[in-house]
Every structure is written in structure tokens, then in C-alpha cells.
Amino acid sequence: MRISANWLETAVALLQAKQLPKLVHFAQTVLAQAQEMGEAGMTDQANAYYFLGLAWSENEPDSALNAYLQALKLCPKHPDYLRQTGHLLRNMGQEAKALRYYQQAVKWNPNQLSAWFNLLQMLFQMQSWQELLKQLELALVQFPEDPHFKTRETALRISALHGLAESALKNQNYTEALSYYQQAFKYQRGIPWTDLDSRHTLLPSNGPLSTLPAEMSRDKWVHDLEQWIWLDQQGLLPKQAQACLPDIQDLLSQLTEERCEVLHLSPKHLTLLKSCFNAPVFWPQTAFIGPVLNPELNFEVLENNFLKSSVPLLWFDHFLSPEALTSLRQFCLGATLWRDYYANQGYLGAFMDDGFVSPLLLKIAEALQLAFPKILGDKALHYLWGFKYGSSSQGIRLHADQAQINLNFWLTPDCANLNPAGGGLQVYDCCAPSNWNFQDYNDQASQARIQAYLLHSKAQMTQIPHRQNRAVLFNSQLFHRTDPPQFKQGYENRRINVTMLFG
């Protein structure tokens, strides 16, 4: 019996209409006819098996897999057969087998962008970061100018580098972790302006994540503009940025006069700021030489006090060595990486996977694990961040963190604190319930529930006043919040805290 020339159109129509039983019957009929034709019907046989696989893939995956494999026996290089076999195996949880079919699809169809995307996505899902980076380089050779590939390539590369950094942290290899974070940052935000040749006078373009919004909180802009002026006063503002400084100062004066909460940028301001918004203007990564923790502290006694305490909470002063304190404060004042703005609470955040990382920060984490071996020795650094607060900030809401041990410490001089009895941290002697998820104990929407739980538990609060170079060590699951700060106005007076999560 002769097979209809347009049978593929009929099969596609049945598939799109989700008439799967009819499609199975139709494909089986075509398959039988094609088999009678022998070698002349091989292509139709393969396509019939393929449509049987499509029809069975959702409800009968084993039958679908067998059909796809039969199709591949007849046409082993067919991109659709390889792709769908990979998809099916991935959905069946057989990732390693799925990967092999995606690899074959790329091998036989190297110019097909979708085949590369499937392979790269599978490696991402498997967290095979080194292989993902290797395949990205090979794909880049195939599609050097393709804008769709370039966008995906950058995002996948950043994910791979972050994945490698996290793996290095788990193994307590801080040097390797730092290297991966530094590489990722340059893909995220672009090359730091301080790394550019001094003859480069044009403002460089930012990385893919630095899109200028049409409007933004006034306080965020005030901080950023004050930071540029501070960098210039310290002789640290890169040459490429100095030409913009008069306009920056003019805009800051305007913002100081206008008390609007949301800034609507004029075309002139948009033009001025589009190249420098969230740009890596200054990002020092100099190695720190010397002890980072205060050598006069008796960490063994501190550790024992923490372990003996009925509430896993400890605070102590003179945490960092004087040189490390000065260096880290300069880093926080100068590095242009305070991108996350929490308008309702008046503070900015900088995070480990977006530039808030340096040789000194990781050296502090490593030194802490050595100083507190019973508390932190087997708990790798999980994450770290910094927060910087405006003079009218209310601080961070009540919450718990997703780790085992928190270490918070403060960098701003005591003379900036208008309330020496406060401005630090409030810690409750009550942990988040084990059956609460992260949103339950960390979201803004959960504040009433947390308050009710603390009231029901008769939780007691410990108020820890702010002091420069004071560290607070506690169980991450204890509820805590910023003690509302009252600090002087002025860029150097902003309250700065660093948080490290372990375990």
C-alpha cells in the first residue's frame, strides 16, 4: 500500500490537536506500510517511530523511549530524534543518559543553536560547572556574533562561575572561591574602571545587569553620588569618571534641595548617569598582608563562653586588627557595589555573588574558622553581605537566617552614633520553628506572625549597642533585627555592618 505524501502534515495536526490515541493508530498504520516497503520506506519508518514517541511521551514514557530509539537506529544523526530522546530521559530523571543524546545532537548538528542550548541547559541542571564552561567556549566559536546566544551565554557563564565558587567554599578553598567570584563579577558588571588603561577616556559600558531605571529612590542616588565625591576626595576616582564629576556634584546639590522620595530623571540626567549607574567604578581587590583578627583576643575563652551559654549568643569588641578594620572600612566606603536598595527600610545591600568579596573578607572568614574550631571548624562560609544605612533608616526587619551560625560586625566609628546605647542589634532567645520555611521566618509579610510567635513563646530580647569593631556571634535561627540606628548625616557616618553566614 502506498503511503500518502502528506502523511506528516496529518500527524502534526493530530499532535497539535492532542488527539493522541488517533495519532498512535495513524503512526502505527504508517509504520506497517513503510516496513512493507523495505529500504525505500526507512525514512517513513523513522518518522512513524518518532511520532509514536511524541504521542506516548507524557503517559507511556518507556514506550516512547523505545520508539525514539527505534527511530535513531534508522536515522542516528537526526536532530529532532536526538533532542526528543534527551528531553524524555531528562524528564524521566535520567540526566546522564539525556546528556549523551544532547551531546550527539551537537556533534552531528553543530550549527543548530537550539541543540547547543539543550546541551548547555542540561549541564546547568546537572551543575557540571567545569564542563559547562568548556562547552560555552566551543559554542562561542560557532556563534560569535549571535545576540540570542550571547545573552544566554553570559547568564550561564555567571551561573557556572558562581557554582564553582560555592563548591570551593564548601571545600574551604577560599583562594579558588575568590578567583571564581572575581571572574563572575566582570561578566556581571563589566571590567572595573580602575583596571582600564588610563588613556581610555570614554566611559565604558556596564555589564548586562546594570540597566538604568527610569526612576529610583532619592536616597539610593544620594548615596551613589556622595560616594563618587568621596572617591575623588581620596584621590581614588578613576580618570574616566572625573570628567563627569561637575555634573555629579550639580545633581547631588539638586537632590539635596528636593526632598521627593522617588527621583524622576530628566533626559540630561539619564544621559549622564546611564554609563555609571551601578558600574564597577572602583573595586579594589588588593591582597591583605598581616593578621586580620585582633591577636590580643583570647578566642579560646570566647569560644568556651559561647558554647556554655544557655542562649547561643556572644558579642565582643576589638574584633579585627586595626589594620584590617581600616582596610575593610575603606573597601566598604569606596567599592561601588551597593546596588540593592531597600527603600522602605532605608538601607543598601552588597552581596557576595555581586562584588562584595575581596581577599580580606575571605581571609577574615578563614581566620574565624581557625579561631573558633569547635563552633566553625566544620562549617564552611555559606554567604556574606554588607549593609549600609542612611541617617533616617529603620534598619532590617525581624527575621532569622538560613544558616547555622551568624557573625555580624560593625565598621562605623562610634562618634557617628547619636545614640550610644543603641543602633546595634536586637536578638531574641527564640529560634524559628523547624516547620517554618524561609519565607515564614524572613519575609516582610511574616512580621505579624513572627511577633505573635515571640509573644506566645515569651521570648526575651537582648539589646546589643553598636560599637565600631564589635562582633556578634549567634545561632542563625535566633530571631533578630537591627536596633533602629540614629547616626549623623554624611557619607562617612553611614552605619555599615558585615554579615557572614557559616554552615
What's the structural blueprint in terms of helices and strands?
Blueprint: H1 7-16, H2 20-36, H3 42-56, H4 61-74, H5 79-91, H6 95-108, H7 113-125, H8 129-142, H9 147-170, H10 174-189, E1 215-217, H11 218-233, H12 239-242, H13 245-257, E2 262-264, H14 267-273, H15 299-308, E3 313-316, H16 322-334, E4 340-342, E5 347-351, H17 359-371, H18 373-376, E6 381-389, E7 405-410, E8 425-431, H19 438-442, H20 447-456, E9 461-464, E10 471-475, E11 478-482, E12 495-502
Antiparallel strand pairs: 1-2, 3-10, 4-5, 5-6, 6-12, 7-10, 7-12, 8-9, 8-11
List keywords for this structure.
503 residues, alpha+beta, Serine Threonine Protein Phosphatase 5, Tetratricopeptide repeat, 7-stranded antiparallel β-sheet, 3-stranded antiparallel β-sheet, 20 helices, 49% helix
Structural commentary:
With 503 residues, the chain is an alpha+beta fold. The chain has three domains: 7-168, Tetratricopeptide repeat domain (Serine Threonine Protein Phosphatase 5, Tetratricopeptide repeat, Alpha Horseshoe); 193-273, no CATH class; 299-502, Jelly Rolls. The chain has helices spanning 7-16, 20-36, 42-56, 61-74, 79-91, 95-108, 113-125, 129-142, 147-170, 174-189, 218-233, 239-242, 245-257, 267-273, 299-308, 322-334, 359-371, 373-376, 438-442, 447-456; strands at residues 215-217, 262-264, 313-316, 340-342, 347-351, 381-389, 405-410, 425-431, 461-464, 471-475, 478-482, 495-502. The strands form three sheets. The protein has a seven-stranded antiparallel beta sheet with strand order 3-10-7-12-6-5-4. β4 (340-342) and β5 form a beta hairpin. It is elongated and about 95 Å long. The protein starts with 6 loop residues before the first helix and ends with a strand. 39% of the residues are buried. The model has no long low-confidence stretch (mean pLDDT 91).
